[in-house]
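hiii, so i know i said id send this last week but things got crazy w the move. better late than never?? heres the sequnce for the chain we talked about at the cafe, plus the structure i predicted for it. fair warning i was half asleep when i ran it
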Amino acid sequence: MMTRNEQRLLQMKADIFQAIGHPIRLAIVELLKDGEMCVCDIATRVGAERSNVSRHLAVLLSAGVLSVRKDGLKMIYELTTPCVLNFLSCVTDLVRQKVHNDAKALADS
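okay and structure toks below
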């Protein structure tokens, strides 16, 4: 049986997956791979309303995936955990393999 600490660690990991697990939040994380950005630029790049992007940024901040600093009137966001990009790269490979396998299965049927 798992200990309370093991259960808590698993829950914390699941919380991070949940925080990242939205298309807009994934886009934000991938945008920030090249460096920090202000919320205005993030909203433009993901094609969403600034208020909606701000809510998604808050989720990522709460999960510890991002950090924020103020620069004048701008809020500047950056990845605090760039290692998450390694996981996302792995997921991309998995998706490509799944698409390949699905296409092959359709061609063979």
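btw Residues 80 and 92 are 21 Å apart (CA to CA). thought thatd interest u
miss u guys!!
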